[in-house]
Amino acid sequence: MKKTITDYNYNGKKVIIRCDLNVPIENGIITDDTRIKESLKSIKYLIDNNAKTIILSHLGKIKTQEDKSENTLYPVYIKLREYLNTNVYFSRETRGESLEELVNNLKEKDVLLVENTRFEDFPDKLESNCDEKLSKYWASLGDIFINDAYGTCHRAHASNVGIAKNLPNGIGFLVEKEITKLDEILNEDTHPYTVVMGGKKVSDKTLVIDNLITKCDYLLLGGGMCFTFLKSQNYNVGKSIVDNDNLIYCKNLMNKYRDKIILPVDIVTNNKNIREISSISDNEIGFDIGPQTIELFTDILKKSKRVIINGPMGVFEEEGFSNGTKKIYEIIKEKHIKTLIGGGDSAASVNKLGFANDFFHISTGGGATLEYLSGTILPGIAVIEEK
Question: How many domains would you assign to the chain?
């Protein structure tokens, strides 16, 4: 069992906490502060325990000098001041004398948000490449390191793995919750166990499929990725998205697990026609699963005891193509089925379609959850000390 935020005495200690404050910002205004809210429990715990808290986070990707002005954490600093009843400071530098002065002047219960860690990615990718010198520098600013950025746990960066190698460490409440919930649903021995998978590319999901197909009872395929499977079975999928590099993979999987893999029997096309999968025309694109497929999928879901969903069933962002995803969520809610929503587009669809409070767990990290479901050990968690 990994050490957690509750395993240390923070009185007067400088604590570096890596959070995931990578929120959407338009014209300097945060449009969704969910990730900030998710981080508050750990931050407030440090404040309540008299720590001098130093927050690190990334925001977007930094490939040019111009990206820095667009991806500053300053709006997050303003939002943190609203949520935290204490002194909150902001460092515009990611290293150097001004940052060090701010750190050294911190008093108990004070909070310092440091500018976007990925500013160190231009021009030499020091953050993303887990540069040893940068890792040791950041570690030198604190006494203890807490990783509460679940969304980046699948990355070995300087601000998570690098610092953890150089300080006493633990995981925060958010990371602990994510891992506990994932382990619970993955290790539970209840059946039927159903995996619902959508999204665009098969290549993003092969490791997850390989890990889960031997354990689940059903794999329901929708979204853009189902068309690669359908094409592998010699169906004409028109101009629907196809991952040609994985056609043989899909064909072999179908041959081996034909009794588990359930493909759509009809789809809604881009021009809102309902087509059986044998009747898709050359110029049509599949945008959602059709009514017969919804019925087929819901019949399986009704008898399922636990469900993992990774990827929506269609272009849920558009009103005319959200029905498949919505109907899947409705039956799960109605039947109170224990369900894990696997972050990323899945979490976005749950929020947009109004099901934010209706599932066992909605993961906050798309990439991290994808890798965890594939059986991969996440480097941001592996580096944390055992109790």
Answer: 2
Are 219 and 143 within one domain? no
List Cβ neighbours of 387 (8 Å cut-off, separation of 6 or more): 1, 2, 3, 7
For residues 199 and 152, state if they share a domain: no
Based on the residue annotation, tell me whether 109 is a catalytic residue of this protein: no
Q: What token pair was written down for 317?
A: 């962002």
Long-range contacts of 265-269 (CB under 8 A, 24+ apart): 265/290, 265/292, 265/293, 265/296, 266/290, 266/291, 266/292, 266/293, 267/293, 268/314, 268/320, 268/321, 268/323, 268/324, 269/238
Contact 30, 23 (CB under 8 A): yes
Q: Is 222 a catalytic residue?
A: no
Taking Cα atoms as reference points, which of 45, 21, 9 lies closest to residue 144? Answer: 9
Q: Is the domain of 235 the same as that of 113?
A: no
Q: 81, 125, 201, 305: which one is catalytic? A: 201
Examine the residue annotation and report whether 275 is marked as an active-site residue of this protein: no
Please give the model's pTM, rounded to 2 decimal places. Answer: 0.91
Given the residues 238, 290, 314, 344, the one annotated as active site: 344
Active site residue 95: no
- Each residue's pLDDT tens digit, 10-48: 999 999 999 999 999 999 999 989 899 999 999 999 999
pLDDT digits (tens, 9 = 90+) for 61-103: 999 999 999 999 999 999 999 999 999 999 999 999 999 999 9
CATH code of the domain in which 305 resides: 3.40.50.1260
Name the active-site residue from 18, 35, 327, 338.
Answer: 35
- Residue 234 gets the label, from left (phi > 0), alpha (psi -120 to 50) or beta, of left
In this structure, the answer to whether residues 155 and 226 fall within a common structural domain is no
Residues 114 and 186 in one domain: no
